Every structure is written in C-alpha cells, then in structure tokens.
Amino acid sequence: MKKILLTLIMFFALTTAHAQFINSFGAMVGVTYARQKWWINDTTDNTLLAEEKHKYLLRYNGCLFIEFFQHNVFRWRTEFQYNQKGTKLDTANYKLKQNYICWNNFLIIRFPETYWGTPYLLGGPRVEYLHKDNFGDFEKLHFSWSAGLGWEFITFGQLKPIAELHYNPDINPAYKQGPLTIKNRVWELRAGVKFVMASKKDCPAAH
Fold first, then answer.
1. CB 193 within 8 A of CB 159
2. Residue 45: inside a domain, yes or no?
3. 158, 63, 161, 138: which is closest to 103 by C-alpha?
4. 65: closest CA among 51, 53, 49, 82?
5. In b/e form, how buried is each residue of 85-101, taking b as 16+ CB within 10 angstroms?
6. Domain span holding position 137
7. Which of 36, 149, 186, 191 has its CA 20 to 30 A from that of 29?
8. What is the pLDDT of residues 39-73, one digit of tens each?
9. What is the CA radius of gyration of the chain?
10. Domain-located, residue 99
11. Does 12 map to a domain?
C-alpha cells in the first residue's frame, strides 16, 4: 500500500509540473452495484454446460482524478480508483467480494452548457489490480471498459460539483480456473468535486 501511495504522489507531482495541460483535478466517492456472470464449460471439449447471472451486491468506490486539455468539447481523464466488486450467490446467500485498485482512462465529450450545468459522456479502458479476494484464485490483473454519463453543476468559483453514472463490464475474465469462467458486470453511481484550473483566457489582462 505504501508503494501505491508513493506512486500516486509522484504521478500527481509530475503532472502538476505540466500544469498548462491540466484542466482540473478532483475526487469522487460512490456506490458500486455489482454482480458476476458465470460460465461453466466441459473441460474436455469446452462445451457450455451452464450460464449463470448471480444477484447484485451493493458496495463502494472512490477515486482521485486529473482532466487534461482546455478544449470546450473534448477532454481526457486519468484516475486512480479503489473499487469494491463481487456478487451474491443464489444459494446460501453467500457473498463473493473482490476489491480492486484501478487505473482508468476516459475520453470525455462535453455538450453545451445549460442553465443547470454541463452534461457529458465519457468512456474508455480500465486496468484492474486485485487487492483483496475472499474466494481465491481470481486474476491479479485484468482489463475492463467503462461507458457513462455525467453532469457538471454550475458554480461561480473554480470548485465544481459533479455526478456520474457508469456501466463497467470486464473485457477478459476476472476468474478462469478449470470449468469456471467469471466476468464482472458493474454499475457505479459517483459524486464529487473538481477544481478547475484558471486558463490563460481567464487571467486578467496586464495594463
């Protein structure tokens, strides 16, 4: 964990040194509505024997992020996220829990500002490192993707409240052992704030 924190500090220090490319930075917390899809295959000929969608499990997430570029429509966000996933099995009400440290990268497409704020779409890949697992033998590293919509609320200062809804399914299996293959299917609802850097056009002219 100390190495992870040191890496995050170094990352933010380096990006701050290139502040002309930074639009904003911030933090979000939210709930993760997670479940898993299981495939059970015959190990001899890989024939699908069963396909199961298990129950949703309510968990939590949080992230730190930086948005790049001062463009009115297109932005790029990179974020470090701690995300709790898992599922609830139909039998015995057993809860599978996996916690991930994620590096997410999203393209953001912003729409024209309205009276209440600015809507936007965002999507891109995630790299997920398994931090905790109560089941055993889940992959230490796997990939997922994310698509979502967000809202940036209007304020008079540089601190902007934001809210987002994401859908986050796995690309490759989070678990693959013997006949069993597992992929996560996750919804995330997030809220937080971001601090918008002052651009050159916002600075007062010299007289």
1. yes
2. yes
3. 63
4. 82
5. bbbbeeeeeeebbbbbb
6. 23-199
7. 36
8. 998 777 777 778 888 999 999 999 999 999 988 99
9. 20
10. yes
11. no
Rounded (5°) CA angle 122-126-129: 150
Q: Mind listing the pLDDT tens digit of every residue in the chain (207 residues)?
A: 666 556 655 665 555 545 568 899 999 999 999 999 999 987 777 777 788 889 999 999 999 999 999 889 999 999 999 999 999 987 767 899 999 999 999 999 999 999 889 999 999 999 999 999 998 889 999 999 999 999 999 998 899 999 999 999 999 999 998 899 999 999 999 999 999 987 655 544 444
Percentage of the chain beyond pLDDT 70 is 86
- Separation CA 61–CA 28 (nearest Å): 8
Amino acid identity for residue 27 in this structure: A
The bridge status of strand 117-133 relative to strand 159-169 is: unpaired
pTM: 0.83
Q: For residue 169, give both structure tokens.
A: 């399914």
Instruction: Identify the sign of the CA torsion 153, 187, 88, 102.
Output: negative
Average pLDDT over the chain, rounded to an integer? 88
Query: Domain tally for the chain?
Result: 1
Q: Residue 6: inside a domain, yes or no?
A: no
The region, left, alpha or beta by phi > 0 then psi within -120 to 50, assigned to residue 169 is beta
Query: HEC profile for 132-184?
Result: EECCCCCCCEEEEEEEEEEEEECCCCCEEEEEEEEEEEECCCCEEECCEEEEE
